[in-house]
Amino acid sequence: MKLLLKVIIQILFIFFVSCTSFQNLSQKKAKILDFYFTDQYDNRIKEYDPLGINQKYIYLVLVTENAVGKKVTLEIFDEPEDTGFIYEGKYIYGKIDFKIQQDKQKLKLYIYDEKNRKHRHLKKKAL
Q1: For residue 45, which of 117, 119, 115, 111 has the smallest C-alpha distance?
Q2: Is the model's pTM score more than 0.85?
Q3: Using an 8 Å Cβ cutoff, are 97 and 117 in contact?
């Protein structure tokens, strides 16, 4: 009986230490290390000009640490009013809200095209 009790106590101790270690690791501060735009070929876009770009979409790449599962709002400044993005079937302007799913995450952003009827409809619906 003493041997069985000793084994159970050791197992509980190992479980407790493991849970404590996991809890300490999961409480690390979430950080956004970098974010940038790339084209469809994964080339960084240094200066984004929405009116002069020839692509239908770009990617927003977000590099994080200890942030998986967190909700994030990224604000996009200096964007002319006649532009914007379509993300997950919604027109977005000024900010993007999403949940981080991996340490390096790519968001596909369709560039708003005023000639595209669906884009105009999504923009009207959002505003």
Answers
A1: 111
A2: no
A3: no
Residue 66 Rama label (left phi>0; alpha psi -120 to 50; beta): left
**In whole angstroms, how far apart are CA 9 and each of 26, 45, 105?**
25, 58, 43
Phi, psi (rounded to 5 degrees) for 57:
-150, 160
Q: Tell me the pLDDT tens digit for each residue of 68-123.
A: 999 888 776 655 566 788 999 999 877 888 899 999 999 998 988 889 999 999 99
How far is it, in rounded angstroms, from Cα 107 to Cα 98?
Answer: 9
Order of all β-strands in the sheet with 85-87 = 44-45, 31-38, 57-65, 104-111, 85-87, 90-92
